[in-house]
């Protein structure tokens, strides 16, 4: 606890020092690199809109220019409309390499009118197997909605329009690894995964609907940029540090906690922490801590 408080204090001091050079994320040209898919990925409208598309040959993807070590990173997404079965829009933070840390949203498309599945996972040192899945309380293809990762030394929160849907706490005290040493970039990709995403290939991707397109706007990152091997927030020197430091809060407030419980009661469709078939020998340690389960 003491060491956490002093870490946070250091962050706060360095963030306050940096807050005068606060600027917004600017255009997507400045924040994002298109990584693959050639002309299937496009930045449009003077850098205010990005689209990824998928056709029978190939999908597409992008990556943030910066790497982050803690922060709140968010973007607005409008998912593939219509019959999107078999498509997966992945939106995630990841460090490089086989012992990577990774925090995932994956949006699994569906037949027209049937709900998307929001698949989430947390990898630490290359090990995941911490899936939770949700349905949404709105149609994610009708308009843009904000999907965010809040990542600080104390917990990770997945949010949809500022409603937290999942919290992964730092439980190193009971031997659960926590992502805190590897900087991560934001990635997104649109790809075809009909074997995985449609209940074992039950529903095929309808290629007559291709190209499938997902849209993105309003990238925002409040946090700590990792640059040239420098490991602390005090090394942040220029953009992307906003005055809003609320992402550093070590716990959800009462209202957010209520919203999280509302989502988990009404919209959670899979939780590894209750899957007894999968873990006959006992659940992973973090499942014993209530807020992860
Ligand atoms: C598609 O919708 C059906 C019917 O509601 C649901 O059972 C299934 O889990 C959904 N599939 C995906 C991939 O979201």
TrEMBL record:
Residues 1-216 form the GH16 domain. It is found in: Secreted, Cell wall; Secreted, Extracellular space, Apoplast. GO terms for molecular function: hydrolase activity, hydrolyzing O-glycosyl compounds; xyloglucan:xyloglucosyl transferase activity. It is an enzyme of class 2 (transferase). Pfam families: Glyco_hydro_16, XET_C. Contains at least one intrachain disulfide bond essential for its enzymatic activity. GO terms for cellular component: apoplast. PANTHER family: XYLOGLUCAN ENDOTRANSGLUCOSYLASE/HYDROLASE PROTEIN 8-RELATED (PTHR31062). This is Xyloglucan endotransglucosylase/hydrolase. The lineage of its organism: Eukaryota, Viridiplantae, Streptophyta, Embryophyta, Tracheophyta.
């Amino acid at each position: 606890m003491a060491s956490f408080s002093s870490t946070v204090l250091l962050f706060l001091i360095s963030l306050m020092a940096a807050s005068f050079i606060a600027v917004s994320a600017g255009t997507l040209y400045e924040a994002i690199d298109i990584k693959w898919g050639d002309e299937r990925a496009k930045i449009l409208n003077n850098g205010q809109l990005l689209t990824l598309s998928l056709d029978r040959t190939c999908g597409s993807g992008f990556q943030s220019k910066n790497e982050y070590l803690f922060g709140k990173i968010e973007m607005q997404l409008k998912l593939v409309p219509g019959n999107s079965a078999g498509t997966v829009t992945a939106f995630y933070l990841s460090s490089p390499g086989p012992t990577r840390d990774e925090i995932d949203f994956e949006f699994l498309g569906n037949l027209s009118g049937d709900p998307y599945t929001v698949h989430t996972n947390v990898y630490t040192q290359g090990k995941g197997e911490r899936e939770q899945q949700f349905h949404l309380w709105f149609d994610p293809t009708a308009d843009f909605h904000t999907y965010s990762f809040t990542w600080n030394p104390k917990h990770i929160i997945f949010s949809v329009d500022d409603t937290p849907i999942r919290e992964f706490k730092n439980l190193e005290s009971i031997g659960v690894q926590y992502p805190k040493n590897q900087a991560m970039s934001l990635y997104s990709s649109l790809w075809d995964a009909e074997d995985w995403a449609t209940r074992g290939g039950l529903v095929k991707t309808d290629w007559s609907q291709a190209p499938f397109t997902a849209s993105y706007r309003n990238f925002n990152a409040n946090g700590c940029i990792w640059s040239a091997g420098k490991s602390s927030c005090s090394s942040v020197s220029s953009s992307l540090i906003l005055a809003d430091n609320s992402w550093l809060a070590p716990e959800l407030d009462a209202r957010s906690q209520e919203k999280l419980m509302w989502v988990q009661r009404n919209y959670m469709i899979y939780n590894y922490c209750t899957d007894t078939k999968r873990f006959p020998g006992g659940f992973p340690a973090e499942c014993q801590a209530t807020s992860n389960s």
